[in-house]
Amino acid sequence: MSGIGRREFIGMGMAGAAGLALRGPLMSALGQVAEPGYNVLFIPVDDLRPQLGCYGQTMMQTPQIDRLAAEGTAFTRAYCQQAVCSPSRTSLMTGCRPDTTQVWDLYTHFRDNIPDVATLPQQFIANGYHAEGMGKVYHGGLDDEASWSIPSWRAKRSAFRKPETLELVKRLREEAIAAGRDIKDRRYRIRGVPWEDPDCEDSDLADGATCDHALERLAEVGDDPFFLACGFLKPHLPFVAPKRYWDLYDPESIELADNPFAPQDAPSYALSNWGELRAYHGMPKQGPVTDEQARTLIHGLAEMELRENTIVVLWGDHGWNLGDHGMWCKHTNFESSVHSPLIISVPGQTPATCDKLVEFVDIYPSLCELCGVPAPETLEGTSFVPLIEDPTREWKSAAFSQYPRTVRGVGRSMGYSMRTDRYRFTRWAIPEKDFLEYELYDHEVDPKENVNVAGLAENAALVAELSAQMDAGWQHGR
Ligand SMILES: [Ca+2]
To answer: DSSP string covering 83-121, please?
Structure first.
């Protein structure tokens, strides 16, 4: 970028968000010369809860993600729109909320419902970018051809490495087949053990191989600006990481959730029975491999002199319960499920931690604004670029998430949840059955959401007020 420093540019853009959206970073200070926009390195991380050093979790050793955060903006209150892989990723990649994508499960492809939507990388391709996807970007089996300039890439690696695990998986498979089960049916998939610590190289496992592939591709990028999505599978179950990463942690020193109980007065269906983990043998702990992959990628960018023109954005697709409320995995509307890591680093920006409420649907319009790519009118989020410049400014008043649940004996309900500065408010309704229940957690005194205070008489007016705010929806969240 000539004629204007990146820092000046960022400052200029932030001073008037609309101006930046119109001018984009493609123009010089004179407004004449179009230059290639920023590259984007886009790093989805599967099931990464904000348990990172840069979020104050000193137990974790995540120095490289912390370094990325130290160079960029770490959003400490970022929320996914639905706490499970495909609905969350689909929402983020289309810039639309789950009720628009109508993807609330792990089986529906968004093209079946919104066939003409321009996904985030697709919009970049339409504006001169080369977009590649590798590793897990969309949920498995739900890739989207139109999103990539060349077919997406996945590492071919076994999920496990240890001979005894491979033997166990083989035996379970044989037993299932002998019992007449179709093991290709998702319900009967053989999952094996929940964790493993093989003594192997990073590249022997899928994430290491994906990282290597990303570095190879970065070395070969052409003249067009790139949008490179490099999705990591870990720390999603099964927790498999090379032994040396496990050895960084003393099991005795690992802190356990201090609220391993259901919230007081919360409806039982609000909780998850964490069937995802129960499908494995044994019990889990957390492996830290992702940090190392992020380091290698970002280091590679620096070596190739791409870092100074590349925006890096790292996000976990949702939170994860590590025994919180007695649950494991995600699949709920609680803070521990929807609160997710989001870090963006824009060259030349002033590093900051930002505690304003942001949503994953905001990522699409933000990257558009930063890269001078026009944002489609269908987007249902708000660019958080102004927060990169001024992390303390006034911002949106609520973040919205949702999760469907069957209420026993009543029917299927979509639980809508709203995080405001102070409260988490969740509403479960089945209008045709005259069913309506609320959850209300006051984060000022109950940050772990241990007591549902929606039913207290003194909170009746507050519940009505929050309910009205929820009805007004995300469009009125600012
Ligand atoms: Ca996930």
So the answer is: SSHHHHHHHHHHT--HHHHT--SSS--HHHHSTT---HH
